[in-house]
Amino acid sequence: MAPAPTPCLHQNIPHLPQQNPAAKFQKTRSRAVKGRSQQQRVTAVAEVNHVIQDTPAQTRRLVEANVPAGTPIVPPQDLPSRPRRNRRSVSFRNAVAENFLHPAHLILPVFVHDGEQNIPIASMPGVSRLGWRHGLIDSVAEARSYGVNQVVIFPKTPDHLKTRTAEEAFNPAGLAQRSIRLLKDTFPDLEVYTDVALDPYNSDGHDGIVRDDGVILNDETVEFLCRQAVSQARAGADVVSPSDMMDGRIGAIRRALDREGFTHVSIMAYTAKYASAFYGPFRDALASAPAAADGSSKRIIPPNKKTYQQDPANYREALRELRADEAEGADIVMVKPGMPYLDIIRLLRDNTTLPVSAYHVSGEYAMLKAAALQGWLNEEEAVLESLLSMRRAGADIILTYFASDAAKWMAGDRSPFIGGTKSGL
Ligand SMILES: NCc1[nH]cc(CCC(=O)O)c1CC(=O)O
What is the average pLDDT value for the chain, to the nearest integer? Predict the structure, then answer.
């Protein structure tokens, strides 16, 4: 019967003697080492019958190496490629890092409301609905102090201003429009992005107009999205971001902006936006979830957004949306959510020359924050790794509620960017 295979990796290396006598091995080592623990170590090694070439250099290494007692003594593996050589020091790791994260990559989403206080959002610890006059300005000033100079505004509309056709979306004196104006007056060089969709203004809680039988109207909605985008551009928006997923809205908005003289205003298209459970906390923040059907009326209000947002099962479909948005004039194409959809980020990156953005959404924030608050994750490391992963997948720009914190952490010992860190061996 063949002997049981030994666990020693080196047993079969042909140029090593297969029968190295344990006695000679132990005697040489005993002379070379001082102290009981090393003696024991050598004995233990000899006993498990490891093979070693007995050269003076190896003897010297044994004495000098500060290895713990019990470490097996083995000859070097015959390996031409040792990837660990390129990971051996901070400087070297940083020199060969393939991707990095910088505050310039980040967009901070901000929730505003038409009041003075900042109101914490229960499902997003650390994030508040900001009072648009002061809280908003303070929060943006803080982000800028860490190098984040891009924000996207989400207004919370009071219920009495919501209608089935969401006209508040293009009220020139609406909260979004006032917030844009105030931000641009206060920080002229700030890049202000807006959300283009009807849901925060729609009493039915959908991104489009809901017909009585529950169909979300496409082309009629697009007409209102165009008015909304133009009113945001008029207020001073730099980038309008349609998040509604109606067909043809990018081209229609581009034409509407150009017609009104806003050829310089960009469009960041939510290109591959999935019908995701990870938007839950956002809908809490804006009270914008699809409305419950009113039992007394015959109207149908779909309980989810699956007739316009993409099915999480789908991959190829993202390419179809990409081709449409590119042809219609998008300047930036977005994938949303972020971490669960890294494959889609890579798909878009490999199929367009446009910048790709990724939205690290409210539910992703909530998950990381909850684990961090429990002490189950190191928040700083887990967040920066998450953001870096989206960069690695191919995102140029990342929308994240962690933008200020991440930029602050990057300004510490990770300055001026993270890929590797400056601390540690
Ligand atoms: N059109 C609205 C919109 N814009 C951004 C988000 C989600 C952002 C987040 O969860 O952080 C949503 C919610 C939705 O589609 O229901």
Answer: 87
Active site residue 273: yes
Cis peptide before 337 (omega within 30 of 0): yes
Instruction: Please say if 336 is a catalytic residue.
Output: yes
ipTM of the complex: 0.97
Q: Rounded to whole angstroms, what are the CA distances from 289 to 124, 202, 225, 295, 410?
A: 16, 10, 19, 17, 35
| CA proximity to 309, closest of 356, 270, 360 | 270
3-state secondary structure of 325: helix
Residue labelled with tokens 């400056």: 422
| Closest-lying ligand 1 atom to the alpha carbon of residue 207 | 1
For residue 416, say if its preceding peptide bond is cis, omega within 30 degrees of 0.
yes
How many C-beta neighbours within 10 Å does residue 65 have? 9
Angle at 281 between CA 119 and CA 116, to 5 degrees: 15
Cβ of 42 less than 6 Å from ligand 1: no
Pick the closest to residue 236 from 271, 198, 278, 265 (CA basis). Answer: 265
Average pLDDT for 67-79? 89
Spatial CA neighbour of 70 closest among 95, 102, 41, 111: 41
Closest C-alpha to 348, from 369, 318, 370: 318
Which run of H or E residues covers position 47? helix 36-47
- Domains of the chain by start residue, with CATH: 22-73 (no CATH), 105-410 (3.20.20.70)
> For the ranges 48-62, 168-182, 269-283, 359-373, which has the lowest average pLDDT?
48-62
Which residues are 195's β-sheet partners? 241
Q: For residue range 174-209, what is the model confidence (pLDDT) as tens digits?
A: 999 999 999 999 999 999 999 999 999 999 999 999
Does this model's pTM top 0.95? My answer is no
Among 240, 246, 361, the mutation site with the greatest number of ligand 1 atoms within 8 A of its Cβ is: 361
Name the residue of 151, 199, 232, 357 whose CB sits within 8 Å of the most ligand 1 atoms, as the mutation to test its pocket. 199
